[in-house]
Amino acid sequence: MKTSCGRVIKAVASKFWVDTEDGVKVCFARKKLKADGAIRVGDRAEISREGKDFVIERILPRTNALVRPYIANIDICLILLAPEPAPDFLLADKVIVNCLAEGITPVLVWNKSDLETGDLSEYNDVCRHLAVSAATGEGVAAVAELVKGKTTCFAGQSAVGKSSLINALSESPVLEVGELAKKIKRGRHTTRRTEMITLGENTYLADTCGFSMLDAVDLPPEELRLYFDDMERFRKECRFNTCLHLDEPDCAVKAHIGCGVGAGRYERYKLIYEELCDRRKNKYD
Ligand SMILES: Nc1nc2c(ncn2[C@@H]2O[C@H](COP(=O)(O)OP(=O)(O)OP(=O)(O)O)[C@@H](O)[C@H]2O)c(=O)[nH]1
Ligand SMILES: [Mg+2]
Ligand SMILES: [Zn+2]
C-alpha cells in the first residue's frame, strides 16, 4: 500500500485536513484512530488513498502536546497579552510552566501596543518577550523572523489578537477576527477550533481558541520551582537545598524579590503551588 506523510492542520467532526507534499488532502481516519484525542491538529500522519478517499492510517509519535491550546508537535508557543482584555499574568505563567514541562519554547507577545505599552520586564530572565501591533504592523517582522521554519501556536485569552497577528503575518488575511464586548471588555470567542495555516518552508502557524481558565500541568507541587528558572537560579544561596521558597528560613529567593525576582512572579508561583497542592489533596481524598 502506498502511503505518504503529512501534517494534520484542521479537524472538523470526523474529517481531517492533512498538509502533504501534494497539497492539502481531506481525510477520514481508520476506526482504531476514532477515539477522542487520537488525532489532533499538529499531528504527523501517514495517509493512504482508498478509491477516491484519503485515509489516515497512523499517527507518528508526538514530540510534545498541550491540552490548552489543544495541539501537538509544536516548537514555539506565543503567549499573547494585550491592554484589553486586561492581561492575565497568572494564565500566562501557567502556560509557560506547561510549555517548559513539554519542551516547548514560550515567548510572550504584548499585542495592541498601538493602544498602550506593556511592561514585561518581570520576564527578562524567564523567556523572550516582544511588543507588537497587529493593527499597525509594528514588531510583526520580528515575529515573522521568529516563526520561520517552525511550528508555532498562538495562545491566550479571547480577543488578545491571535487571529489578527496571524493575518498580519500572512500575505492575505485568512482568519476571522472578532470584537471585544464593549462593556465588559472581554472577547467573544471568535475562533472556535485549532487550525494551522502554512507559510511555506515548513512554517506552520496555529490559531487557537481563546481561554481564560487553565490548570497548570499535573506536577507534584514540589517540582513547580523547576519551571521558575528566574527564581531557581538563587536556590544555591537558600539555607536549605530543598527550599521551596515558601516559609523556609533564610530563603534567597524571597530576599531577591524586587531585585532579581519579580514580586508578581513570586506571588503567582505561590498561587500555582497552592493550586497543585489542592489538586493533589482532591485526588487522594
Ligand atoms: N488596536 C488594536 N486592536 C487589535 C490589534 N490586534 C487585534 N485587535 C483587535 O482585537 C479584536 C480581537 O482580535 P482577534 O484577532 O479576533 O482576537 P483573538 O485572540 O483571535 O480572539 P478569539 O478568536 O476570540 O480567541 C479585534 O477587534 C481586532 O481588530 C492591535 O494590534 N491593535
Ligand atoms: Mg481568533
Ligand atoms: Zn528559597
Offer a quick outline of the entry.
The protein has helices at residues 89-102, 140-147, 162-169, 229-232, 252-255, 263-284; strands at 3-12, 15-20, 23-29, 44-50, 53-59, 65-66, 71-72, 76-81, 105-110, 128-131, 151-155, 195-198, 204-207. It is an alpha/beta fold.
Largest sheet: spatial strand order: 10-9-8-11-13-12
CATH class of the largest domain: Alpha Beta
Radius of gyration: 21 Å
How many domains make up the coordinates?
3
Count of DSSP H/I helices: 6
Low-confidence stretches: none
Averaged pLDDT: 94
CATH fold label of the largest domain: Rossmann fold
- Tell me what portion of residues adopts beta-strand conformation: 15-25%
- Structural class assignment: alpha/beta
Structure notes:
By secondary structure, this protein is α/β, with parallel strands linked by helices. It folds into three domains: 3-59, OB fold (Dihydrolipoamide Acetyltransferase, E2P), CATH 2.40.50; 65-207, P-loop containing nucleotide triphosphate hydrolases (Rossmann fold, 3-Layer(aba) Sandwich); 221-284, Probable gtpase engc, domain 3 (Ribonucleotide Reductase Protein R1, domain 1, Orthogonal Bundle), CATH 1.10.40.50. 21% of the residues lie in helices and 25% in strands. The chain has six helices and 13 strands. A six-stranded mixed beta sheet has the order 10-9-8-11-13-12, with helices on both faces. A five-stranded mixed β-barrel has the order 1-2-3-5-4. Helix 1 (89-102) packs across helix 6 (263-284). The chain is globular, with a radius of gyration of 21 Å. 36% of the residues are buried. Guanosine-5'-triphosphate is lined by residues 111-112, 114-115, 133-135, 158-164, 177-180, 187-191, 209-210.
